[in-house]
Predict the structure of von Willebrand factor A domain-containing protein 5A-like.
Amino acid sequence: MEICGLVTDKNESVPLKSISVQVLVQDHVATVSSTLQYVNEEERPLEALFVFPLPADAAVCHFSAKIGEQEIVAEVQDRESARDQYDDAVSSGQQAFLLEESAESPDVFRLSVGCLSVGQNAAVTIIYVTELSVQADHSLRFCLPAVLNPRYTPAGSGAGIVSEISSGCGSVPYTLSLSVHVSSPKPISKLESSCSLDPLVFLHSDHTQATVNLSPGHMFDKDVELFVFYQDTHQPSAIVEAGVTTAPPGSLMRDPVVMISLYPEFPEEVMSSLATQGEFVFVIDRSGSMGDMMHHGKGAQMRIESAKDTLLLLLKSLPMGCYFNIYGFGSDFKSFFPQSVVYKQETMAQALKRVKEMKADMGGTEILQPLKHIYSQRCHPDHPRQLFIFTDGEVFNTKEVLDLVKSHAHSHRCFSFGIGEGASAALITGMAREGSGHAQFITDTDRMQPKVMQSLRFALQPAVVNISVDWTLPDGITVDTLSPPINVLFQGQRTLIYAQLKGESSGGSEGAVTVKYSLKDQPVTNQLHFCLKPTEETGLSIHRLAARTLIRSLEQEERSGAADVEGIRSRMVELSVQAGVSSVHTAFIAVNKDSRQTVKGPMQQRRVSAYAESDDDVYDDLDSPVEAAPEPQKDLLLQLVSLQKASGCWDLDATLADVFGKTEDELTNQKPAQVDGSVWATLLALIWLYGCKREQQVEWQFVAMKAASWIGSQKVGDLSQCVCAGNVLLGCQVTKETLGI
């Protein structure tokens, strides 16, 4: 396998010199334009390949190359004819550029830069559109990835993609500049980033437009993450985008397209009664790379240790009487129990003992076999299966994994967690999408626990069923919904619907969309009114994302063995060419026909990995564990949680007293006479959580709910007096009402 680093130990130069990125954020959608500067510093002509990552649901919509003073703009063509054209051009000494989606995974694109003569410069520009994901704090996240990890390929699989992606070592030999322009119907409240930014500049007094730049000197050693905060961002909204008058009549690109962003409102009384049933299966990546540190700052943990702390919280948060199991996987897999077991004190204690012994020692990242094993187990009636998958890696067979999850979508929900910079967005978002669940990315200094507990809250929510979407439009206008049917709705989650508006209105200028569903046997209705007049200055980003959504649906049809494969494929190519967005069956091709020259000497092949350096000898120790980290300080919250019984109570003992910074005698002496020791201990734990750890409530919310319900089931005399005594002992001021008893 050929491996060339960004900078070799002989210090050979790499053709890439700089990356310049412009981001235009429009409400929930971003258009990203990246320009890559190359120079051939070899002694002879060079054919270079550049491999780089994109967000999983991005749609590439422009690709051009400027060589010297001449610019070549690429066009989308059927993939095979684009490849043939590229090969013909290069062999006859013409400069050619080819951009195609990787067949193995849709978030990897390969850029063949073709023939560059000695000393020549080339600037390549790629533009893509993408949806921004909504975070727990209602911000929208944009990420420019710094890493394309070499993907793990099992021995003997013969997968082609790994040989295309190279590693490097040392510092990144190119520079990055990034500017961002944000516009929205809603006022912008702030922008935050994982990297240092120049101050935000508002362009209008109503704060609906703003610009910001990345501060100079960014080393591109980590992802660039931006978080956009709008006022009322959780409110539903609509953007109507005008089509192109030159496109064929009746086509997607000719008609206006509307993008509806929906947030279902769940009644408070439904949300307060979370499910007490379910089968919870936790699948933990134990490959060697899980031994890497979560980040390089003070107090950093190994990924596997962070996952173990998270498992502790999850296990303590499960409802009594549900079913659960835990799988570890690497090159093979192991489960704690032969099949899922009933959740009670004994099984929880057994599982926690096994969790403590878990290490990142199971080789590579092969997720398909454990999933097949889980799906082969029978489901328990009245206990819906909830799958939680944690991985920091990338697999060679993403599409096969997604097809498997999709084929079992009727019997489970899948919640996925990507850990670290190298987790595959296509794998993580794809598993959640196909499994009607939710995806989370845990990068750099993120704490894993709050994100995972948010997903557990989703898993415990009652399922929304009988979902229907109805349109009310003026006479003369019909609607063609392009998005697949909505099969899952969560509280606080955005759902995007793309639709093509056909025909001419005979009068009215307003439309409405009504979403109905059943929640715990109660009918719920949400309605949004929107103006049919196109929103100004959106370009064609909504059309392109709509085309991308349709193409993705067709790809799934094709993979699921539909009868008319040829018809589906030609519809995909037609859509892709018309909208100018990439698909698995098309590619962008550009040939500089004026550059015909004889190529002297053999052609050099250079493989350049995008955006970041990785470890040297990456394939030899891709998944080998790193040496043990220094013992971090004990986390008092995790200590307290680890002492809770499965039923929700605590014992009154020295280990509990230690968490509060007290002795066992101090706890016992202050106990009101009429109160049982376990009730007193559990009450103190609740008071401490609400009084000292309020900011981490998302992590201990279920632990506290179990504790409160356990106390409620006990015979307690004067509860108010007990709470007062507990407040005095712990130096807190928590009311009985706050504790939810």
